């Protein structure tokens, strides 16, 4: 238990850490990697280069500090981070190393403003937060290992099939090389892949959403090839998977993880996706039609056009055959053929006026995934429509914990 004075100091100074979150994050990783360079293998180096990871780390520390006397208020952030830590294989012995680098980064950035009282309070707070994370992660490791077919660490999977879904998205059907049981997972969760690429000094770790319903034969991920654009380098791992990994090749993978899963009640559900954000939604859709045959499902997908729209025929067929499934498509830049053959329901972007047109009411559970601008637009529209927070659920393909950070 933290004493009242420590809690007071941490809560008072948390906004200062928020103000300097990017600088603290950058300094933290400089110190951490200089002291323990092998940890490069655990972090997304592309996010490092883009500065996303740095700001997200310090912002997460701020959130925990600001709610140090009521961590239940940031329960969703804690759950998201601990799931990722389990997937990455974070160990209790690494927390002191991280803590030292973090406190030293705060000292370096804040300078004389980081008084002894402030540093001592944050050292205590960090230890308290670390203890909570370690306890939660210990349970996650146990649950993961003890479930039928479960495992800890990497397990070798081979690519059984590689299927092109669109001009930019390809599906990989993965089967365990040892031929043993596959553990179940919840629709919306992800796999974590370790890519050891020729010419790269360190391993690259990536999370990819599972894109099919749980089954006993395979895992499926559907990966978008990230090409270089507007000063952003091409995705190292996505291009490796698309261009260099073939059927029969093996990949080290950790067991499914993630907290973006749907509730099992009977309320109508709306699945909204933008671009490659369709992947967890496809897992949810394919699971719902098997397990909740009478639940009303509305599937809305936004893409540039049919060329990059993955799995469109599958969704279209389900909507035609199943009375409880309705599908809508929104294209921002439709092709001439899209217009001629009416491949979409709306041209432009998903907005509140259109949602009100296609949905009977807002008494539904909403799940959405896609690029950050898409998520912000959808979340803002749903808030304006008075959809309660507990009915608004999203997955962010980013180290950030909430869309409010960006």
From TrEMBL:
Cofactor: heme b; FAD
All residue ranges annotated as the Globin domain in the record: 1-138
Cofactor note text: Binds 1 heme b (iron(II)-protoporphyrin IX) group per subunit.
PROSITE patterns tied to this protein: FAD_FR (PS51384), GLOBIN (PS01033)
Binding of NADP(+), residues: 275-280
Keyword Transmembrane among UniProt keywords: no
Catalysed reactions, semicolon-separated: 2 nitric oxide + NADPH + 2 O2 = 2 nitrate + NADP(+) + H(+); 2 nitric oxide + NADH + 2 O2 = 2 nitrate + NAD(+) + H(+)
Keyword Nucleotidyltransferase among UniProt keywords: no
Domain FAD-binding FR-type: 152-263
Purpose of the protein: Is involved in NO detoxification in an aerobic process, termed nitric oxide dioxygenase (NOD) reaction that utilizes O(2) and NAD(P)H to convert NO to nitrate, which protects the bacterium from various noxious nitrogen compounds. Therefore, plays a central role in the inducible response to nitrosative stress.
NCBIfam families: PRK13289.1
Entry comment, domain topic: Consists of two distinct domains; an N-terminal heme-containing oxygen-binding domain and a C-terminal reductase domain with binding sites for FAD and NAD(P)H.
Record protein name field: Flavohemoprotein
């Amino acid at each position: 238990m933290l004493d009242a004075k420590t809690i007071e100091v941490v809560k008072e100074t948390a906004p200062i850490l928020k103000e300097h979150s990017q600088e603290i994050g950058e300094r933290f990783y400089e110190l951490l990697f200089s002291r323990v360079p092998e940890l490069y293998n655990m972090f997304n180096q592309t996010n490092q280069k883009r500065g996303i990871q740095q700001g997200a780390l310090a912002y997460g520390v701020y959130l925990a500090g600001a709610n140090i006397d009521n961590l239940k208020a940031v329960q969703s952030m804690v759950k998201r981070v601990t799931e990722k830590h389990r997937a990455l294989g974070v160990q209790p012995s690494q927390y002191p190393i991280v803590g030292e680098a973090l406190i030293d980064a705060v000292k370096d950035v804040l300078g004389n403003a980081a008084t002894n009282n402030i540093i001592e309070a944050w050292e205590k707070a960090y230890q308290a937060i670390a203890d909570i994370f370690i306890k939660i992660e210990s349970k996650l490791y146990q649950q993961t290992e003890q479930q039928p077919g479960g495992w800890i660490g990497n397990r070798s999977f081979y690519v059984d099939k590689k299927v092109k879904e669109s001009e930019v998205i390809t599906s990989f059907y993965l089967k365990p090389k040892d031929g043993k049981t596959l553990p179940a997972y919840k629709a919306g969760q992800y796999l974590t892949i370790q890519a050891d690429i020729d010419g790269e000094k360190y391993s690259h770790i990536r999370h990819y959403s599972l894109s099919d319903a749980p089954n006993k034969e395979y895992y499926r991920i559907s990966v978008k090839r990230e090409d270089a654009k507007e000063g952003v380098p091409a995705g190292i791992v996505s291009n490796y998977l698309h261009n260099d990994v073939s059927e029969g090749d093996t990949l080290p993978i950790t067991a499914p993880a993630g907290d973006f899963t749907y509730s099992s009640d009977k309320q109508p559900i709306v699945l909204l996706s933008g671009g490659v954000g369709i992947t967890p939604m496809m897992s949810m859709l394919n699971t719902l039609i098997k397990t909740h045959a009478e639940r009303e499902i509305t599937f809305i997908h936004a893409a540039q056009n049919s060329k990059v729209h993955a799995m469109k025929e599958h969704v279209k067929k389900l909507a035609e055959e199943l009375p409880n499934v309705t599908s809508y498509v929104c294209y921002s830049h439709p092709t001439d053929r899209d217009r001629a053959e009416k491949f979409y329901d709306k041209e432009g972007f998903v907005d509140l006026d259109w949602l009100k047109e296609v949905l009977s009411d807002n008494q539904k559970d909403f799940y959405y995934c896609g690029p950050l601008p898409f998520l912000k637009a959808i979340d803002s529209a749903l808030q304006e429509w008075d959809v309660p927070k507990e009915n608004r659920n999203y997955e962010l393909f980013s180290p950030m914990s909430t869309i409010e950070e960006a």
